């Protein structure tokens, strides 16, 4: 679907305070989840109760923003009731859409809440027009969050072929694997994004000092070693340092995060309907800063002005950033 | 434990030469006690041209040997050429197709029967019910599932007349990416990869900086370093309703012997524990795992 409208800025919120900050900073939509394993950021102290969600919806609607509820893990066999209730509760709270990945849940939502707007989560990894059409035709999906494995040209080609909106990530943490199809975390820890809503969970992280080096471990495996005076990166499995043959280093991905701000013109040109910022686990002030900056960037684009470059550099934890798969050379 | 339990030889995940490919399947046809064989490229579309001409002959030989043939689809489909590969598989309506990405399912008409591969996220009854209604006849459950889920889903599968299958042997597929890690560690780009993945017939070992064996890369795919082995769990898997066991091909000329071990346990001619010891003797230096099934972390290995 070609895009003639102003692209929607979709912002994360892990707490009611972050939700209000995102709305105040100019988010068009805010996405959030319930405090349980039904969403892919199932971290302690994060996310919303049903009551908090209903309050958040009221706040957002008053401010002219929408609320999207991520129910994007894969229900455990025998326990789908918890996920079904999450969908029911999102409807009851007045949410504008749910973001789903599991086929069974999509079928449930279509059947029980036919008027509820359904978005396809990045966790479903629908990576081409045929797969997207399948979800549109079978489950009435209105928007697909594209997996972070596609180039800008591929995204443009998809938009020429499909009858639904597309949403792409533009900033924040970067999965190097096709999301929803990765069990690296559970291989090392028993806890996975698909089943538990966590990746490389802090509960399984250990640090120890050894010969002047800080060793970061995930479960029984060393993910990185750095000299003691250097800041130790969090041991996210796919950003770790390993050896493979003669190679020693970041086999999968450097500890970078995504910043596609400068690609906003091309992505608009490619027909993308919504830009998504990752980071429901982030603080309220981080959310405020990132949303404010992206609001400016999108508004500049729509006014035909140049995108301010590098304004978000300081928000990437001192990390280097990458445009990821959007540029073909990344592969 | 009777002949009701069947063995599926999964698709070859690695980049072998065309001759190695043909020799492997000739030997499987002649010697391996497997019931069905999955053929086709699951990992990287660039590899298929090297052996596509060999596939018809392999199909013929395997079918003559009484093996059922399943054509496996690609796991991650982004390019036009890759979508076409799916369309091409759908043309063969006399052969069962294994769906490894929903792109493939989109190409199969309603009512057409198919097998669901282990890379499709079947975690619960709702998803299984949808796939059953679409025509699934067999579902190889994701390797990540614990026994409790397998038990529930096997019961559900029986209700729909679907054969539940588990990943029973071989390095487990853990992730798939747009990026080629084989190319990356060799300082190459994916588009000019020189097919360096061909150097590693079982994948390239990825060790931690402390020398612990951890993972294995296979082009765009990441596998476990350990070889999954559910030999010691076959009894309770059969009791829970699992009817099919998937063995994933590896190099080294041992797959016939591996299949024979599984066949013996499935036929109750050998105990799981004894077979486990035989497997360890057959593949010296190989670390095994059954942690996912046991509800632990995937790399764990618990003896029965």
Q: Can you describe what's shown?
A:
The complex is a heterodimer of chains A (331) and B (304). Chain A is an alpha/beta fold and 331 residues long. In chain A, α1 runs parallel beside α10 and α2 packs parallel to α3. Chain B has a single domain, classed as Alpha-Beta Barrel (TIM Barrel), CATH 3.20.20. Chain B is 33% helix and 21% strand. Chain B is built from 10 helices and 12 strands. The mean pLDDT of chain B is 96. Chains A and B meet through α4, α5, α7, β10 and β11 of A and α3, α4, α5, α6 and β7 of B. Chain B: Its cofactor is [4Fe-4S] cluster.
What name is given to the CATH topology of the largest domain in chain A?
A: TIM Barrel
What's the end-to-end separation of chain A, in Å?
Answer: 26 Å
CATH topology of chain B: TIM Barrel
Label the CATH architecture of chain B.
Alpha-Beta Barrel
Please, how many helices of chain B? 10
Largest interface: A-B, 71 and 70 residues
**Coarse structural class of chain A:** alpha/beta
Strand order of the largest sheet of chain A: 1-2-3-4-5-6-7-14
- What do we call the CATH homologous superfamily of chain B? Aldolase class I
Number of strands of chain B: 12
Overall average residue pLDDT of chain A:
92
Decide which structural class fits the backbone of chain B.
alpha/beta
């Amino acid at each position: 679907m070609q895009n003639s409208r102003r692209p929607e800025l979709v912002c994360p919120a892990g707490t009611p305070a972050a939700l209000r900050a995102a709305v105040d900073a100019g988010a068009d939509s805010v996405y959030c989840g319930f405090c349980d394993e039904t969403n892919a950021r199932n971290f302690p102290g994060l996310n919303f109760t049903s009551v908090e969600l209903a309050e958040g919806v009221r706040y957002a609607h008053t401010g002219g923003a929408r609320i999207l509820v991520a129910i994007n893990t894969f229900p455990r066999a025998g326990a789908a009731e918890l996920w079904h209730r999450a969908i029911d509760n999102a409807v009851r709270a007045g949410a504008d859409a749910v973001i789903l990945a599991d086929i069974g849940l999509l079928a449930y939502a279509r059947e029980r809440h036919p008027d509820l707007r359904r978005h396809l989560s990045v966790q479903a990894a629908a990576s081409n027009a045929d797969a997207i059409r399948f979800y549109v035709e079978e489950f009435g999906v209105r928007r697909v969050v594209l997996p972070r494995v596609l180039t800008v040209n591929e995204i443009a080609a998809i938009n020429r072929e499909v009858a639904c909106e597309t949403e792409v990530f533009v900033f924040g943490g970067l999965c190097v694997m096709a999301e929803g199809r990765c069990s690296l975390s559970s291989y090392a820890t028993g806890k996975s994004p698909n089943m538990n809503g966590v990746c490389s969970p802090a509960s399984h992280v250990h640090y120890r000092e050894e010969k002047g080096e800080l060793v970061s471990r995930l479960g029984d495996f060393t993910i990185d070693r750095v000299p003691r005076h250097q800041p130790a990166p969090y041991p996210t499995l796919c950003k770790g340092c390993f050896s493979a043959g003669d190679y020693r280093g970041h086999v999968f991905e450097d500890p970078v995060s995504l910043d596609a701000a400068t690609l906003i013109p091309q992505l608009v040109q490619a027909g993308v309907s919504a830009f998504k910022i990752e980071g429901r686990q982030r603080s309220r002030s981080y959310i405020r800063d990132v949303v404010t900056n992206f609001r400016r960037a999108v508004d500049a684009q729509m006014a035909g002005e140049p995108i301010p470059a590098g304004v978000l550099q300081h928000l990437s934890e001192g990390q280097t950033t990458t445009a990821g798969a959007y540029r073909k050379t990344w592969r | 434990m009777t002949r009701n339990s069947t063995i599926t030889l999964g698709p070859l995940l690695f980049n072998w030469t065309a001759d190695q490919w043909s020799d492997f399947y000739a030997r499987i046809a002649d010697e391996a006690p497997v019931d069905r064989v999955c053929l086709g490229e699951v990992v990287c579309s660039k590899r298929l041209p090297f052996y596509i001409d060999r596939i018809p002959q392999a199909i013929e030989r395997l079918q003559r040997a009484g093996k059922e043939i399943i054509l496996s689809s690609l796991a991650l489909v982004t390019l036009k050429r890759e979508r076409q590969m799916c369309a091409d598989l759908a043309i063969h309506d006399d052969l069962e197709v294994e769906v490894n990405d929903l792109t493939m399912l989109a190409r199969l008409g309603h009512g057409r029967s198919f097998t669901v591969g282990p890379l499709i996220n079947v975690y619960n009854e709702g998803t299984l019910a949808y796939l059953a209604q679409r025509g699934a006849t067999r579902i190889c459950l994701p390797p990540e599932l614990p026994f409790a889920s397998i038990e529930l889903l096997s019961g559900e599968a029986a209700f729909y007349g679907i054969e539940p299958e588990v990943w029973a042997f071989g390095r487990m597929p853990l992730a798939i990416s747009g990026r080629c890690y084989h190319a990356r560690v060799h300082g190459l780009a994916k588009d000019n990869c020189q097919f360096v993945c061909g150097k590693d017939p079982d994948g390239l070992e990825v060790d931690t900086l402390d020398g612990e064996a951890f993972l294995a890369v296979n082009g765009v795919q990441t596998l476990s370093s350990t070889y999954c082995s559910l030999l010691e769990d076959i009894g309770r898997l059969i009791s829970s309703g699992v009817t099919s066991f998937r063995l994933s091909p590896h190099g080294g000329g041992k797959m016939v012997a591996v299949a024979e071990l599984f066949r013996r346990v499935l036929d109750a001619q050998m105990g799981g524990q004894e077979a486990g010891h035989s497997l360890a003797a057959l593949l010296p230096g190989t670390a095994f795992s059954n942690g996912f099934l046991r509800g632990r972390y995937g790399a764990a290995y618990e003896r029965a």
